[in-house]
Specification:
By secondary structure, the chain is α+β, with helices and mostly antiparallel strands. Helix content is 26%, strand content 33%. It is built from 7 helices and 10 strands. Strand 3 and strand 4 (121-133) form a beta hairpin. The longest helix has 26 residues, at 296-321.
Length: 345
């Protein structure tokens, strides 16, 4: 009987349920995991870009994580990138590429990237980018005498590139070079008139001597022998005339190819250049063919959700600041945007 009473009393005791686990704190833009994801994203973008220059990470603007299964997350990133001096065909590792300074008329890239993290490894599913040069007004405020970016199809620019390549080919003992694309150009008007150009080239199957006899017969080397390079040139037209050219071939790089536009490239002008732009737009949109999800509506919706989360975080910090705090208290910064690694445009 005593055992029965004890059992009844035990049944009547209140059951205390364990409190649910608190959700993980949102990932911040400067967290190691965010930076690791951004590194994979930037490498992917540069690896799939076909024109212009390599870009480096300047700032992680936002990050949004959507947990899927255990050890399987979908991550959305908003990235600010900056153009480097390394052409996309250059074998120089990104870590060794120099970021163009603000006064060199910097170019910024804006990218949205969707990744998947599986068992600690990141895979890019999709990305979408565009780039733009800093405003001329910003440059001139800081450096009134600095030359500004010129349109890549400007007559002076094309004339300088043509003269520079002809000058190199007439003096070289190596292969005859052909122009692939004009990468960058600036024009200085005072105190001297100077045109600065940068352009990508490729070796042909002709020597310099053979090209003098029949340049039309010179063809770019096949992919398994390709040899790309890069040239810089400076032409002074006033007060005196002078031309300085420096070209360097990279040597064959297995797996590295160049996508020729479907049009006449005798002047090295890709479609965006014909429209009169001052820089090759990182107009990059790519869906990984092995990905099972698309970038379209889900990508846009998730990025909007990420922005709203960031705004709420800022609002919460502002609200907490209204509460009396001990002297010397410093409120924590919002998780995003992250730190600026180089400079802000």
């Amino acid at each position: 009987m005593k055992a029965l009473v004890a059992l009844i009393l035990l049944i009547q005791l209140p059951i205390h349920k364990a409190a649910p686990a608190a959700p993980p704190a949102p990932l911040g833009c400067d967290d190691p995991e965010a930076e690791a994801a951004a590194e994979v994203a930037v490498s992917y973008i540069n690896g799939h870009s076909h024109h212009g220059y390599k870009f480096v990470l300047n700032r992680i603007e936002n990050i949004h994580v959507l947990p899927q299964l255990p050890n399987n997350d979908i991550i959305f990133l908003e990235l600010d990138l900056l153009e480097t001096t390394c052409h996309i065909l250059s074998p120089t590792p990104l870590a060794n590429c120099t970021v163009r300074s603000f006064t060199e008329h910097a170019v910024e890239g804006d990218c949205d990237v969707k990744l998947q993290k599986v068992n600690g490894k990141f895979f890019v599913l999709a990305s979408k980018c565009h780039s733009h040069a800093d405003s001329s007004e910003d440059i001139l405020q800081l450096c009134p005498d600095c030359p500004l970016l010129a349109r890549l199809n400007d007559t002076e620019v094309v004339t300088t590139v043509t003269a520079a390549l002809n000058d190199h080919n007439s003096k070289t003992a190596g292969p005859h070079l052909r122009l692939l694309e004009i990468g960058r150009a600036k024009i200085q008007y005072v105190p001297a008139h100077i045109v600065f150009v940068e352009f990508a080239v490729a070796a042909t199957n002709c020597s310099a001597e053979e090209a003098k006899e029949n340049v039309e017969a010179c063809q770019l080397l096949p992919d398994d022998q390709s040899n790309f390079g890069f040239c810089t040139a400076t032409m002074v037209t006033r007060p005196s005339q002078d031309l300085t050219v420096n070209c360097k071939l990279y040597g064959h790089q297995p797996g590295v190819t160049y996508s020729l536009p479907g049009q006449d490239t005798s002047a090295g002008l890709v479609p965006s250049v014909v429209q009169g732009f001052t820089n090759h737009n990182l107009r990059f949109s790519h869906n990984n063919p092995v990905a099972s999800e698309s970038i379209s509506s889900e990508f846009s919706a998730s990025m909007l959700s990420a922005k709203s989360v960031a705004k709420r975080a800022v609002a919460e910090v502002a609200q907490h600041d209204k509460v009396p705090r001990p002297v010397g208290f410093v409120p924590p910064p919002p998780p995003c945007p992250g730190k600026i690694r180089h400079f802000k445009i």
